[in-house]
Amino acid sequence: MRLSLILGASALAIGACASVTTETQAPAETTVTETVETVTEVVAEPAAPLIDRAAIFGNPERTQGRISPDGGYISWVAPVDGVMNIWVAPADDPSTATPVTNDTYRGIRSHFWAPNSKFVYYVQDNGGDENFHVYASNIATGEVLDLTPVEDGVRATIQGVSAEKPDHLLIGLNERNPQIFDLYLVDASTGERELVKENPGYAGWVIDNSLTPRFGLVQTAGGGADMVDMDGNPIFSIPAEDFLTTNTFGFNKDNTHMFAVDSRGRDTAALVKISASDGSVEVLAQNDKADISNVLLHPQTYEPLAYATDYLRSEWTALDKETSADLAFLKGELSGDIEILSSTEDLSKAIVYSEAAEAPGIYYIYDREADTLTEMFATRPDLADADLQAMYPVEIASRDGLSLVSYLTLPPGSDTDGDGRPEAPVPMVLAVHGGPWARDNYGYNSWHQWMANRGYAVLSVNYRGSTGFGKNFVNAAVKEFAGKMHDDLIDSVEWAVSEGIAQEDKVAIAGGSYGGYATLIGVTFTPDTFACGVDIVGPSSLVTLVESFPEYWKPFLEGTWFKYVGDPANPEDREDMLARSAITKVDDISVPLLIGQGENDPRVTKLESDQLVDVMAQKGLPVTYVNFPDEGHGFARPENRLAFYSVMEGFLAECLGGQAEPIGTAFDGSSVQILHGAEFVPGLEEAVAAMPTEEVAE
Fold first, then answer.
1. Catalytic residue at 610?
2. What is the pLDDT of residue 674?
3. Which value, in Å, is the radius of gyration of the alpha carbons in the chain?
4. Which of 563, 560, 524 is nearest to 541 (CA)?
5. Sites in the chain below the pLDDT cut of 70
6. Spelled out in words, what is the top-level CATH class assigned to the domain 63-199?
């Protein structure tokens, strides 16, 4: 039961790694208005008890539960002296777990088992620069080996791991040419590497189960791609309209066919089987409303066992009777949405994850032979008794007739009858996801729970361009940055006001990456809609954004950024890109703005924030600028998350009137720098004054 996550082009989305809505988030005044003749009386509801900010944004107690292929071990990621590391225990004695990695600063965020059950693998970068190294931890000796000891600036990617070569990984390195990745077979025991294939110019590789490169992806004019064999012969083509919604993800056992999600010839991406010899396609499953989002593969035959689609919520469908029985059992035992994350090679046991909006994730061990489900651990047990709120999936109509799948969370006590509408309008935060080629989902969301607890409705909208809803919805965003994509957000705010959810004059916009861009567009292009904005690692200029992208993105730009926003080397495109950028409309900003930046961000460089803040400061506009010199595209270190969110909480309370936990000791251990505008956030000047002198930025 190997889970294959269909990632699409998320690696080329500016928000793919932004730590904005995590896990993968009191009330202010909820008012009841009674009118007698011409007199309006506003009655404030009692404020809900504050949930400790650290319980939401600090390290989880444990996460990333896994089981080794031989069933002998279980593993997870948990803190060691406050830093996330990988822990391993005998499957029959979890209490004897020990850490098998020794990260002391940034923390490890994901891991997986080698097919031989001797190693756990993970990747790590330096301060968020995304130049990843690949590491193997030997669980018998505790030795951690850097399998890619390359120079600074070189990026390593795991291209393949297979039971057919259980001691090896196939790794891509852009050491020779920063734009493309050569393939190396690396011995996990020794780190010895052997060149398998020098890249002749492929934007990407397709690897079979023997860790042999079979096909290369070649970008074509207009934004499509050809899949070619190792002699350069095309096997099949992907039209430009399908480039972001068609992706291969594995081979069958004998390597004669590839599995893929494929939108060619249809709108929503289907699960298909593609011949490796002639490119012919067999459709295995499809859904008219949503793309196939996840696929469960058999760990020995590699055949699909089940697939998931996600329209309003994730739903799994089995492809055989045995898996159907498994899913029926799990759904009967668990109330939240489920995922099967890893299994033993013989399928006797699996790790199952379940979460709901009101319940942070819990990991379970599913014994398929005994038909038992045993809790492994809860990710955030400190929230078990917290007053977490329901999340309501809603469909909002755009002005031109699209259906925008969205998610709404309301403050405690505001919706006494549970109909998804508050008894009186409340302040609202429009939380915009990054990408734009990503999406919001149902489930536990740290931002939603945090902001709802502080007294705000929270609305997350899958604007056009979001993935999961078919290629027509994605392609509706072509050349619509700051256009119809933004109209979708405005339409959603107007819907919330008309439905009695949001107070019209107390709506904030916030988000990371593309969500940060949307925030900046919101306070410049539609300055009367929002009371304030929070931009986290968002681009202020589409021109400087695209010009500063990492070299290894360039082979894909024709089908992504050039298609959707333009090529800045083209004068007409450049003019249009500037017209769709906040930097050209700074004079129209009339509300407070908070900006968060990671200094090492390779996707949205610090220039994007610097140039906007410089102009705003010169014009005397209210902007607070928070920088983290040891972060990249989002805030990975919990100390930095807590520091930024303490500032954001005070900023929103000043703007919208909700509750705020004082900054207090939230800056402890953080690299936080307040580069401008401390005076605009209550308590921030005092917090800066209390910082050690060497930590205070000039």
1. no
2. 98
3. 25
4. 524
5. 1-12, 15-46, 693-698
6. mainly beta
Q: Are 9 and 427 in contact (CB under 8 A)?
A: no
Closest CA to 502 of 550, 559, 455: 455
Does the annotation count 614 as an active-site position? no
Asked about 581 being catalytic, the answer comes back as: no
How buried is 6 (Cβ within 10 angstroms: 0-12 exposed, 13-18 middle, 19+ buried)?
Answer: buried
Handedness of CA 249, 251, 253, 257 (dihedral sign): positive
What CATH number is given for 2-25+47-54+385-691 in this structure? Answer: 3.40.50.1820
Given 342, 513, 540, 646, which residue is catalytic?
513
Q: Any bridge partners for residue 239, and if so which?
A: none
Place of tokens 């008219």: 288
Q: Give the active site residue among 242, 291, 535, 601.
A: 601
Token representation of residue 302: 């590699």
Structure tokens at 262: 């494929």
User: What are residue 4's DSSP bridge partners?
Assistant: 295
Pairing of strands 532-536, 426-432: unpaired
Residues sharing a CB contact under 8 Å with residue 86, sequence separation 6 or more, in sequence order? 75, 76, 77, 99, 100, 101, 108, 111, 120, 122, 137
- Ordered strands of the 247-251 beta sheet: 247-251, 257-262, 270-275, 281-285
Task: For 562-603, write each residue's pLDDT tens digit.
Answer: 999 999 999 999 999 999 999 999 999 999 999 999 999 999
Q: Which two tokens stand for residue 157?
A: 């990617």
| Confidence (pLDDT) at 164 | 95
Indicate which residue of 168, 257, 433, 633 is catalytic: 633
Residue boundaries of the structural domains of the chain: 2-25+47-54+385-691, 63-199
**pLDDT of 419-465, one tens digit each?**
999 999 999 999 999 999 999 999 999 999 999 999 999 999 999 99
Backbone phi, then psi, for 68, in 5-degree steps?
-70, 155
**Three-state DSSP string of 251-302:** ECCCCCEEEEEECCCCCCCEEEEEECCCCCEEEEECCCCCCEEEEEECCCCC
In the prediction, which pLDDT does 679 show?
A: 97
User: What pLDDT digit, counting tens, does each position of 212-254 carry?
Assistant: 999 999 999 999 999 999 999 999 999 999 999 999 999 999 9
In this prediction, residue 582 carries a pLDDT of 98
Residue 621 near residue 653, CB atoms below 8 Å: no
